[in-house]
Amino acid sequence: MMKIAILSQDASLYSTKRLKEAGEAQGHEIKIINYLRCYMNITSHKPSVFYNGKPLEYFDAVIPRIGASKTFYGTAVVRQFEVMGVFTANESQAISRSRDKLRCLQILARDGIGLPVTGFAHATQDIDGLIDTVGGAPLVIKLLEGTQGIGVVLAETHQAAKSVIEAFRQLDANILVQEFIKEASGVDLRCFVVGGKVVAAMKRQGAEGDFRSNLHRGGKAEKVKLTPEERSTAVRAAKSMGLRVAGVDLLRSNHGPVVIEVNSSPGLEGIESASGVDVAGKIIEFVAKNAVHGSMKDRIQY
């Protein structure tokens, strides 16, 4: 039996509840910890994490479920557990890396993983060149800080693209500009990777008239059979990010699968429902198997 902490702000969320259920079903002791209510003693001799005034000791592993808007503090808590020698389902550095969309794409590009043609610029006077870089309109404009499809705009003409980019830059927002993969027809693939294997996959179709396929935006999901190339791309993308547990989103383009996002805290409800796979159970099995090998000598160096 292992003692596992799930770091989550909300114990009522589907993903948090399923991980707890799956862990208990496998005979482990599971605690849900609101990481925002943790505080830390950062010291060389006895680093510790406190919760409700008591030190969190003797955990064999933690499963981070860090909200995108709370990445800075959440990863600090995960890092503190790492300093204490506790195995984490995803390491703090990998979570931070994947949350920075620009950094994520640059790392994937460095590792030769298929991506949509992507541009990034700072000054508004560079807009025409930026649009030309990705092959012109139609194109997709994304806020770097956006999640769940928020801040993602399809600009169908050059003038529309200029207007949207100028508006975002007036707000001093950082944006990415990407080629529009028309042949994907509003469909993307969510590949759920655990421990270097795709354990489940689903196809998501955008709501009527919406090119974004996010389930939070009204998209629909169903089970899908991946090609070997799609499976390999998802596994390589998770590995590039250093993520042990990841949701990798792909588009089917004319030049093969391209990665549009790598998520370090992928939701379980859509993928379990669409695929019929006990994904929570797979995560617990992976954590329990690998936490056995974690020890103080395996600490990450910072």
Summed up, what is this model?
This protein has 302 residues and is an alpha+beta fold.
Write the layout of secondary structure elements.
Elements lengths: L2 E5 L6 H12 L3 E5 L4 E4 L6 E4 L2 E2 L5 E4 L6 H13 L3 E2 L3 H8 L1 H10 L7 E2 L7 H7 L5 E5 L8 E4 L2 H13 L4 E5 L7 E8 L2 E9 L14 E4 L4 H14 L3 E9 L2 E8 L5 H7 L3 H13 L11
Parallel strand pairs: 1-2, 1-6, 6-7
Antiparallel strand pairs: 3-4, 4-5, 8-11, 9-10, 9-11, 12-13, 12-15, 13-14, 15-16
For this entry, give a set of tags.
single chain, 302 residues, alpha+beta, Rossmann fold, Dna Ligase, domain 1, D-amino Acid Aminotransferase, Chain A, domain 1, five-stranded antiparallel sheet, four-stranded parallel sheet, 9 helices, globular, disordered C terminus, ligase, nucleotide-binding
Could you characterize the architecture of this molecule?
Pfam families: RimK (PF08443), Rimk_N (PF18030). Mn(2+) 2 binds at residues 261, 263. Helix 1 crosses helix 9 (279-291). 42% of the residues are buried. The chain contains nine helices and 16 strands. The chain has helices at residues 14-25, 71-83, 92-99, 101-110, 127-133, 158-170, 228-241, 269-275, 279-291, and strands at 3-7, 29-33, 38-41, 48-51, 54-55, 61-64, 87-88, 118-119, 139-143, 152-155, 175-179, 187-194, 197-205, 220-223, 245-253, 256-263. It has 302 residues and is α+β, with helices and mostly antiparallel strands. Helices cover 32% and strands 26% of the residues. It folds into three domains: 3-96 and 285-298, Rossmann fold; 118-180, ATP-grasp fold, A domain (Dna Ligase, domain 1, 2-Layer Sandwich); 183-277, ATP-grasp fold, B domain (D-amino Acid Aminotransferase, Chain A, domain 1, 2-Layer Sandwich). The strands form four sheets. Strands 14-13-12-15-16 form a five-stranded antiparallel β-sheet, with helices on both faces. Strands 2-1-6-7 form a four-stranded parallel β-sheet, sandwiched between helices. A four-stranded antiparallel β-sheet has the order 8-11-9-10, with helices on one face.
